[in-house]
Amino acid sequence: MIILGIETSCDETAAAVLKDRKEIISNIISSQAQLHNKYGGVVPEIASRKHQENIVPVVRESLNQAGISLNDVDGIAVTQGPGLVGSLLVGINFAKAVSFARKIPLTGINHLEGHLLAPHLEHNISFPNITLVVSGGHTNLYLVKKVGQYKLLGRTRDDAAGEAFDKVAKLLGIGYPGGVAIDKLSKKGNPSAIAFPRPMLHDRSLDFSFSGLKTAVLYHVKEIGINGLTDSAVTDIAASFQQAVVDILIEKTVLAADEHHVHAIAITGGVACNSLLRMKMNERAADEGIALFFPSPVFCTDNAAMIALAGSYRLNPEEKFPFFLNAISRWPI
Ligand code: KG4
Ligand code: ZN
């Protein structure tokens, strides 16, 4: 079965071709990060206009690279939500037009389910497992009983971890996406330089909270003042902040595995690219005897291969053309 995946929920226009669930035969991602960089975050109006320009060339390239035409496509899977409505609609309307014109079955996919399944693109992961989806919009811990059966165990009560990375990077004036900038800068900084708080670290709840940590960084920056914000101060703040986030993510994820007697953990979403998280979590999982899976970085951040994989479980070839398919801005699972 050959599935064309399409993803336009935020600032990446992406298309991928997936064969028989395992073979990613193309994976094209056109990132708008440079465009949004100077604003320190995604500007929705700019994002949707750029998707409009990119969608045809990106899909065309994904088919070309796969060496197939639309005649070979058995189904289309498009991100239906959650995300920016103006961005989602570009992918959805394009997918509907192709599906209608070429009579190819179409299904709408929850972006979160895409992230949840991304680790399965490259790894055989046993069920049940604990999966942490940690991105710019979400920090959700799930017990995954099998594909399609996700139990939300905990989530952030305020900012998502990626959002905290982006806000702290904006505060430090080091660019967008903030996680990438902080990760890079932290390698030169001292992670113990500033004892930032680790909210909710030692309670038994599986929820997260990052807004207090972000505010602590803000107060620290105010306290040392603009003159104190030297290059080395910025790298130490970045490293200390990153260490705090990583400590929290690891502790809660291991706690979830422990409470549910699960021996497999997957970590996915943009923040799963973080090099400290990958290193420290690997050490911890080895200590705990837990099998740990991270997708390759290109499948951690937004991509269409994960949408195609979710589509491979959701597509129903019998279903009539879904005229009703519309964008859903908030869509929890
Ligand atoms: O999954 P994603 O591409 O989009 C959403 O669904 O949100 O995640 C984007 C988020 C951004 O907040 C970005 O700062 C963060 O992932 N991110 C990172 C790293 N790379 C991307 N955070 C920490 N370290 C990284 N290396
Ligand atoms: Zn995402």
Brief characterization of the structure:
The protein is α/β, with parallel strands linked by helices. It folds into 2 domains: 2-116 and 300-314, Nucleotidyltransferase, domain 5, CATH 3.30.420; 126-294, 2-Layer Sandwich (Nucleotidyltransferase, domain 5), CATH 3.30.420.
Describe this structure in words.
- This protein has 2 domains: 2-116 and 300-314, ATPase, nucleotide binding domain (Nucleotidyltransferase, domain 5, 2-Layer Sandwich); 126-294, Nucleotidyltransferase, domain 5 (2-Layer Sandwich), CATH 3.30.420.
- The radius of gyration is 20 Å and the shape is globular.
- Helix 4 packs across helix 11 (305-314) and helix 5 packs across helix 6 (178-186).
- It has 333 residues and is of the alpha/beta class.
- The chain has a 5-stranded mixed sheet, sandwiched between helices. The protein has a 5-stranded mixed sheet with strand order 8-7-6-9-10, sandwiched between helices.
- It has helices at 33-37, 44-66, 85-102, 111-117, 161-172, 178-186, 211-228, 231-259, 275-288, 297-300, 305-314, and strands at residues 2-7, 12-19, 23-31, 75-81, 106-110, 129-134, 139-146, 149-155, 264-268, 291-293.
- The structure holds 5'-O-[(R)-(carboxyoxy)(hydroxy)phosphoryl]adenosine and zinc ion.
- The site of zinc ion has 5 residues, from helix 4.
